[in-house]
Amino acid sequence: MTEERAIIQLFMNIMRVLVSKISIFVTEKCQASSIHTILDILIAANHVAKAYLGLNEAPFKVQLIGIKKKVKAYNLSYIDNIQPIKNDDAPDILILPGAFEAVATESEIRCCLEEYQSAYKIFNNWHKEGVLMASACTGNFLLAKTNVLAGRDITCHWAFSSIANKIFPNNVFRTNKLLIDHGDIVSAGGATAVSQLVLYILAREHSRELAQITAKMMLIEMNFEQQSRFAIFKPSHNHRDTIVSKLQAHLESKYAESFNLTEFSSQNALSEKQIVRRFKSATGETPLSYLQKTRIEKVKLSLESGVVSINKAIWNVGYEDISSFRRLFKKATGLTLQEYRSRFSMCSV
Q1: Integer Cα distance of 277 and 84 in angstroms
Q2: Contact 283/291 with Cβ under 8 angstroms?
Q3: For labelling alongside 313, which of 83, 218, 226, 255 has CA 20 to 30 A away?
């Protein structure tokens, strides 16, 4: 046996005797699909470990934990067999899946978060004991309510970016990222990104071989890259600034035309700095970034329809510098224009 094969065999022997305890925190109005996805992948991983890797014992022991023994998910299904969360029953890995419905308002989210104060204290204690904390989608809000981040950035579903920043102004949410790993905490983006989170944990805490075979067993394509390719620019109009609303309407309807901030400011008897400050305060964007994102969204729609050529789609939104827009698009989505069309075009279905 070569030295390399001996090392691999030693590693697998060690894996045979390691068993990780995983606890999944379940909340009222949770994302049931997120809970079931985690369970299904971990059950599959235990099967793969014994059937394909030759382990004598399943490497993961899984339990649902929470404040209540039974909860009603936001899709109206029930989840039970939930064990009470105990400070002296720390797992090796804690997973915080989607914690509330995707259409929850800011006030509803704040109320939901307040219900789990007792749990946050236990999570903090577990973290000090070395428990790996992993979260996905709106479960990242629960993670942000603990004291474990210490200024470090996390991700969440791109659609919750604005609300996340309002509720947690001192935290940084990098919603372009699908996964962020800080060693002691791992966060994942949208609801179905929980499958990538679990596969990542399998690879990190056990072996990449287990993660790969489990992914194949579950017909999941492993992807730990960006979620920005799925994002939709949906600007906020929920404000009372009439000047900002006027500028939004202008940029959204005349996105294919050049925009003159100086002229707009003069017409409204305001300085350019005042316009930019008020616009960013209301929308979270500068007029330029707002226009760019609007144009990118229009090009995405053209690519998805598959009707016009890529260059024509770019020209249609007012860009004459094709190369410049290609760079802008790649930076915003993580994909080239051709890659985006290949992945999302309805004509390729």
Answers
A1: 49
A2: no
A3: 226
Query: Given this model, what pLDDT does residue 292 score?
Result: 94
Task: Tell me how far apart the alpha carbons of residues 211 and 187 are, in angstroms, rounded to a whole number.
Answer: 18
pLDDT for position 16: 47
Decide if 136 is inside a domain. Answer: yes
Same domain, 99 and 67: yes
What's the domain range around 265? 242-348
Which of 178, 197, 229 is the C-terminal boundary of a domain? 229
Residue 191 has pLDDT above 70, yes or no: no
Per the listing, tokens 């579903």 go with: 157
For residue 257, being part of any structural domain is answered with: yes
Contact 303, 292 (CB under 8 A): no
Alpha helix (H) residue ranges in the chain? 3-17, 32-51, 106-114, 117-128, 139-145, 161-167, 194-205, 208-217, 242-253, 261-267, 272-283, 287-305, 310-316, 322-333, 337-344
Neighbours of 103 (CB within 10 A): 8
Are residues 7 and 141 both part of a single domain? Answer: yes
